[in-house]
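Students often ask why we bother encoding 3D structure as a string. The short answer is that it lets us treat folding as translation between two languages. Here is a chain of 244 residues written in the first language.
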Amino acid sequence: MPDDLPDDLPEPAPSPAARSLRVRAHVRTATAGDAAAIRTALSLAFHDNPMMRWALPDDGTRLEACAAWLGPSVDRYLALGLVHVAERDGRVVGAAAWRLHGVDVGAHPVASSLPTPAGALALILGADRAAAVLTALGGASTASAPTEPADYLNYLVVVPGEQGHGIGRDLVLAGIGAADARARDTWLCTTDPRNHAFYARLGYVELGRHELGPGGPGLVALARRRQSAAGAGPGSANQTTVSP
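And here it is in the second language, the structure alphabet:
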């Protein structure tokens, strides 16, 4: 799909002392009023992401270009998907956006609103380059999609300066809990090898690997099997699993 982008979030392990000094961020369901803060967080967190550096190679314009490209997707996820934000001191410092399996996207007015994610990218890169980027992303994610019904974690970000304090984990677990309640598996794609251990700790296992075209980064799909009500909860030590 055109707006199936890898979600990338390195989570360096903080020291116990550093973690104890910070007030834990509050995770809540996002509303339409969070759109500006979410697209800004995406731009800040994705600036050095391997996929974004490949798709948007100009360092000087990547922040604005990323916001312009992903902004329409944020609107669609807020209307049709499940989006959580993490707040600290009244500021959005992280976000996670899920595409929910079985939702009729075309039935909502936002689906036909402008600009579209694909149209925004064409304005930034030109039609031919944008089509190549979107074809590579869509082909790689579709080829690795799980066969069972599963919710897709498209975006997971924590802004620079807030990473490594458990915010990404809390955001993912909020979505996993919602998926478990709906008896849904979850999956995602990532282009940053540093993320693999983070997702493995949450029970995700590899589904497949693909290259995003000439000069592009490798994309790895990961998935997690849902937990039954009688089974272990998300993040528990005996969690089993299988993935923007």
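Translate back mentally: The longest helix spans residues 62-80. Keep this in mind for the problem set.
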